[in-house]
TrEMBL record:
This is LysR family transcriptional regulator. InterPro entries: LysR_HTH_N (IPR000847), LysR_subst-bd (IPR005119), WH-like_DNA-bd_sf (IPR036388), WH_DNA-bd_sf (IPR036390). Keywords: DNA-binding, Transcription, Transcription regulation. CDD domains: PBP2_LTTR_substrate. One of its GO terms (molecular function) is DNA-binding transcription factor activity. Gene3D superfamilies: 3.40.190.290, Winged helix-like DNA-binding domain superfamily/Winged helix DNA-binding domain (1.10.10.10). GO terms for cellular component: protein-DNA complex. Belongs to the LysR transcriptional regulatory family. SUPFAM superfamilies: Periplasmic binding protein-like II, Winged helix' DNA-binding domain. It comes from the Bacteria. Residues 1-58 form the HTH lysR-type domain. It holds the Pfam family HTH_1.
Length: 283
C-alpha cells in the first residue's frame, strides 16, 4: 500500500465511481481499477460495494477512507514543510474589498516578528474565498459575517459597525435608519439582506438606488455625486474626501474573522499566524 494507491482510493470514494475519478485524475479507467484490486488483495478485504450506479464503501472502506485522508494530509504538509526548510516561507491570505486594510495591519505586525515570511494576497469575495480555502489555494482568509463557515476554524479579529458616507452633508452627525430611509442608498450587494433586515426591524423602507459587487465601488458612486453609501467602518480610511456618519443602530454590525481549514496537521507557519491573530485581536 503506497500513497498513490491511497490517493486513487480517496478520489474514487469522493467521485462516487471509478470512471468519474479517472476523469478527474486524467487517467484511463483500467489502471485505476487494477490499483484498487491490488489494494484490496493486499488488505485482504473488499473496500467497495459494486453493482450500484455509484460505488459505496464497505465498513473496511469507510475505515480506510478516514485513515487515508489523514495520511494524505500529513504527507502533503510534511512535503511542504521539508521543501520550505531553508527557504523563505510563504503565507497565502485571501482578503475582501472591505478587509484589506485589516490584513495590511496584521501582515505588517506579523512580518516584524517573522521577517523570513513573504505573502501572497488574493482579492476575492467571502464566498469565493471559502472555495479557495477548500481547494487549498489559500492558507487563510479574512472574512466578514454574514458568511457560511461550516467546517472552518475561525478566529474573531474584531467587530465592525456600518457607517453612512455621502459627499454633500454639511456635518458628520450620526444618522438613524429612519433618516437613511429618506435618502437614495448605494449598497454592497452581499450586505443587502443584512441591511434590509435592520430597516424592517425599524419599520423603515430604504430607497436602494444602486447595488454593487464591490464595497469600494459604493464609494466611487458617492464620489460621482450619487446617493449615500452604507459600508463597514473599516473603510473609513478610504473616505477622507467624503462625509462619514455613524449609524445609530447596533444591528448594523459585523464580525471580522480569520478563517482557515480544520486540518489535522496544519503548517507550522499557519499555526504561528493563527496564534498571532489570537493574541492581537481586538476584544
Amino acid at each position: 500500500m503506497d500513497l498513490k494507491q491511497l490517493e486513487y482510493f480517496v478520489a474514487i470514494a469522493d467521485a462516487g465511481s471509478i470512471s468519474e475519478a479517472a476523469r478527474r485524475l486524467h487517467l484511463s479507467q483500467p489502471p485505476l481499477s487494477y490499483q484498487m484490486k491490488q489494494l484490496e488483495a493486499e488488505l485482504g478485504c473488499p473496500l467497495f460495494l459494486r453493482g450500484h450506479h455509484e460505488i459505496e464503501l464497505t465498513a473496511a472502506g469507510k475505515l480506510l477512507y478516514e485513515r487515508a485522508t489523514h495520511i494524505l494530509s500529513y504527507a502533503d504538509s510534511t512535503k511542504r514543510e521539508v521543501a520550505e526548510t531553508g527557504k523563505r516561507r510563504v503565507l497565502r491570505i485571501g482578503v475582501t474589498s472591505s478587509t484589506s486594510a485589516i490584513v495590511l495591519l496584521l501582515v505588517h505586525a506579523f512580518s516584524l516578528a517573522h521577517p523570513d515570511v513573504r505573502y501572497e494576497i488574493t482579492d476575492a469575495t467571502s464566498f469565493q474565498m471559502l472555495d479557495l480555502l477548500e481547494e487549498r489555494v489559500l492558507d487563510a482568509g479574512i472574512v466578514r459575517t454574514p458568511a457560511k463557515l461550516t467546517g472552518l476554524e475561525t478566529i474573531r479579529i474584531s467587530s465592525d459597525s456600518m457607517i453612512a458616507v455621502d459627499q454633500w452633508s454639511a456635518d458628520e452627525d450620526p444618522l438613524t435608519l429612519k433618516e437613511l430611509s429618506e435618502r437614495q442608498l448605494v449598497l454592497y450587494r452581499r450586505y443587502e439582506s443584512f441591511i434590509l433586515d435592520a430597516f424592517a426591524g425599524d419599520h423603515a423602507e430604504p430607497d436602494i438606488l444602486v447595488l454593487t459587487d464591490d464595497a469600494r465601488d459604493c464609494l466611487s458612486w458617492v464620489r460621482g455625486g450619487t446617493g449615500t453609501a452604507i459600508v463597514p467602518s473599516s473603510m473609513k480610511s478610504s473616505c477622507t474626501d467624503l462625509r462619514v456618519h455613524p449609524i445609530n443602530d447596533s444591528r448594523l454590525s459585523t464580525e471580522i474573522l480569520l478563517a482557515a481549514r480544520k486540518d489535522e496537521y496544519p503548517s507550522p507557519l499557519l499555526s504561528q499566524f493563527c496564534s498571532f491573530v489570537r493574541q492581537h485581536r481586538a476584544d
